[in-house]
Design a protein that fits this description.
alpha/beta, Rossmann fold, 8-stranded mixed sheet, 8 helices, 8 strands
């Protein structure tokens, strides 16, 4: 990595402060993070299916990540890190807001889960390697998406898999997340800047520039009947799974 990348900080202070103020409500399914609680079940289904396919794990196993190292970048208060630990992974989780990390530690300790929580940006993990790298709904909040992806790619072990999710920059996401989500206070106002959303093509280009290859694209859609669910429609929100080229 060049000198400018080495000096890079992924953290946008205003973004970290915004999410830090919401820390106390992360684990309240009816609080300011209610949307994330609704996103988590389909998110976990997708991650589990990807794990099983990539490593050939037994679908019936409760510990498909046993013996695997995992990092969740932008972990919030641990909504994803905790299930990954329950799957048997040796989980490291990092977040830009120290308030989130404090809440995450308290919550996991009460449940007896061993998770290595840290406060900081992705660059704080430089030199470490992980079998599974996840970063969910984070890249739209960082200082430089291209350098952020390059930093994530450096964390990925040779046979590892990376799973990213982010909103697509489409009229649908603007309507759903900005006009409706934030306009009706379903999501805290100021959470999203639609102009910073990345299209699948843009994110794929960043991954390929970092020496990775996208092996799967999956949409996250919403309907009144089914709620948030996995689909082939990438217009609202999507997952990209990548491996080393």
């Amino acid at each position: 990595m060049n000198a400018s990348a080495q000096e890079y900080s992924s953290i946008v202070a205003e973004e970290a402060a915004h999410f830090g103020k919401l820390a106390a409500e992360w684990w309240d399914p009816k609080g300011s993070s209610a949307m994330l609680h609704k996103l988590n079940p389909p998110r976990l289904r997708h991650i589990r299916a990807t794990i099983d396919q990539h490593w050939g794990s037994d679908f019936a196993s409760m510990k498909p990540l046993a013996g695997k190292s995992v990092v969740d970048v932008g972990c919030g208060a641990g909504l994803l890190a905790e299930p990954l630990a329950r799957m048997g992974g040796a989980v490291t989780a990092i977040d830009a807001a120290p308030e989130n990390v404090a809440i995450a530690k308290l919550h996991s300790e009460k449940l007896g889960l061993q998770i290595d929580y840290r406060a900081g940006g992705v660059e704080a993990l430089r030199g470490e390697r992980f079998d599974l790298v996840t970063s969910m709904e984070v890249i739209e909040h960082v200082a430089d998406p291209a350098v952020f992806v390059a930093s994530l790619a450096e964390l990925l072990a040779p046979d590892g898999i990376m799973i990213l999710s982010t909103p697509n920059r489409t009229p649908l996401s603007y309507l759903a997340m900005i006009r409706i989500g934030e306009g009706l206070a379903m999501v805290p106002k100021g959470t999203h800047d639609w102009r910073k959303f990345l299209t699948p093509e843009e994110l794929t280009a960043h991954l390929e520039a970092s020496g990775l290859r996208v092996i799967d694209r999956r949409g996250l859609s919403f309907s009144p009947a089914a709620g948030f669910h996995l689909s082939d429609n990438l217009a609202l929100d999507y997952f990209l799974t990548a491996v080393h080229s």
